[in-house]
Amino acid sequence: MATPKREKGEGKDEKQDKVEIKECPECGSKCLIRDYDKAEIFCADCGLVVAENIVDMGPEWRAFDSEQMSRRARVGAPLTYRIHDKGLSTLTNWGTAQGGEQYKLKKWQQRTHIANTTERSFIFALSEIERMASALKLPVNIREAASMLYRKAMRKHLIRGRSIEGITSAILYITCRQYGVPRTLEEIREVSRVGQKEISRAYRFLLRELDIKVSPASPIDFVPRFCSMLGLGGDIRAKAIEIIKRASEKELTNGRGPIGIAAAAIYIAAILNGEHRTQKEVSDVTGVTEVTIRNRYKELSEQLDIEVLL
DNA sequence: AAGACGAAAGTGGTTGA
DNA sequence: TCAACAACTTTCGTCTT
After folding, report:
1. Strand C nearby residues, CB < 7 A
2. Which residues 6+ apart lie within 8 Å of A246 measured at CB?
């Protein structure tokens, strides 16, 4: 796991109006994520913040931006599942034909109907992956990996009888994890059209059927994104990661949820660096409750001898 | 008034007989 | 298959700033 650090030649007076960066200077991956809200580019693989303050947005920008945000937050009109083949299949409904040309035609229609619908659902699945990945701001290589995983699941006939929404959501969840930039189940659910229960059902199903092995997510993997969402800079991110590493050495993270650990470490790191965030703020971003943040941060500060003064 | 605290009961997933 | 179990959530009253 690469340790996040500042980019080398980051001069103070270096004007960074337009930044065009193809790959991460740290790990060389093409996993750069451009976060317009926080105006920074960071690497999805190693968490390195490649560039900050890309655009200097004035206050007026904010208003425009929030409008754009709410538009982006809407995931699109609800789909109509029922009318997808209504017109065509009723065209030649002379259903009493038993043999001859009409029978052959009907058979042919049934076959192409099946081919059309599986193709349709496949196209729909890919567009769903694209839509959700876009809402989650995932880099292209993760989208491609997700599409490939869907093809694989299709080849093994794992799709039939299951909702495309559940499968595609679970596939994104899996792929993000595999690429070291895990999303929480809740984040996936927010851009999905189905509930958490169905997503995790599909998730476990896919892991079993494709026998994919996913190592449990490390709390560190969540830190860059959560920090970014809280408006916390690189120093705090580094501090939080250091806390997690020390906790991990003392085996304080065993059996604990990685998100809770990450949330607590960030909470502590922010206070230590004089940029206090309330437990509620951290809770809203991470999706774990304030109670869990409290419990984890009590454990961590106690066991690691960190003085946390509010 | 808001944030932090912690007890107690409830939930959903994992494990082991 | 079922019950025990651990982690986490929900809820809520209390203390602190």
Report:
1. A 255-257, 260, 287-292, 295-296, 310
2. A304
Q: In 3-state terms, what secondary structure has residue A35?
A: strand
| A28 burial level (CB within 10 Å; 0-12, 13-18, 19+) | exposed
pLDDT tens for chain A, 310 residues: list them: 333 433 333 333 333 344 455 555 554 445 555 555 555 566 654 555 555 544 443 333 333 333 344 444 444 433 333 334 444 444 444 445 565 777 888 888 888 887 778 888 899 999 999 999 989 988 888 888 999 999 999 989 898 888 899 999 999 999 999 988 899 999 999 999 999 999 999 999 999 888 888 888 999 999 999 998 999 988 999 999 999 999 999 999 999 999 999 999 999 999 999 999 999 999 999 999 999 999 999 999 999 999 898 8
Full set of structural domains in chain A with CATH: 1-75 (2.20.25.10), 117-209 (1.10.472.10), 219-303 (1.10.472.10)
CA of A290 to C1' of C7 (A): 14
